[in-house]
Amino acid sequence: MFANNISRNVNIFYVIPVAVAYALLAVAFAEIPSYMKICSRKDPNINNCVLNSIEQLRAKLKVGIPELEVPAIEPLVLKHVRLLRGPQAARLDVNLTNIQVFGPSTFKIRDLKIDPENVLITFKVGFDKLNFRGKYKINAQILLLHLVGEGGLTGTFCKFYIYICKCFIVFR
What we know:
With 172 residues, the protein is α+β, with helices and mostly antiparallel strands. It has one domain: TULIP domain (Bactericidal permeability-increasing protein, domain 1), CATH 3.15.10.30. The chain is built from three helices and five strands. The protein has helices at residues 2-10, 15-28, 46-63, and strands at 76-85, 92-102, 108-115, 120-142, 145-167. Strands 1, 2, 3, 4 and 5 form a five-stranded antiparallel beta sheet that branches. The radius of gyration is 19 Å and the shape is elongated.
């Protein structure tokens, strides 16, 4: 029970939407394979075009795209996540290792807005359900209470959404 509560506070799943976004960005900057649909910056329906392109890539993202060096997102493997917060008297140090996340390939992109002129992309990434398992080590000091422990970690996040805004500075 204690380990499950810690996992909620750690918010490791901020990493998942970022991993999905970086996988998509890695695809964007590589040589374009024939199975990828390219959207024109001048397309008045660029938002729908990009959403359709992502949907076409979903199955490939799930298992990875080796020719573009994009790793599989199912399961998403996080080798190490560390949360270190607070001053020495109220320190929380949590190390999570070998985390496997099941369900990232079911992501839903909502409210996608692409502004090609300002090179700005904003969207929400949502997941109905994410299951995870891994190992944890905790070393925490809460006033006079010193908590130390390690073990297996499992959990489920339901209805998880995060807002992502990515802006690039372009010199013309």
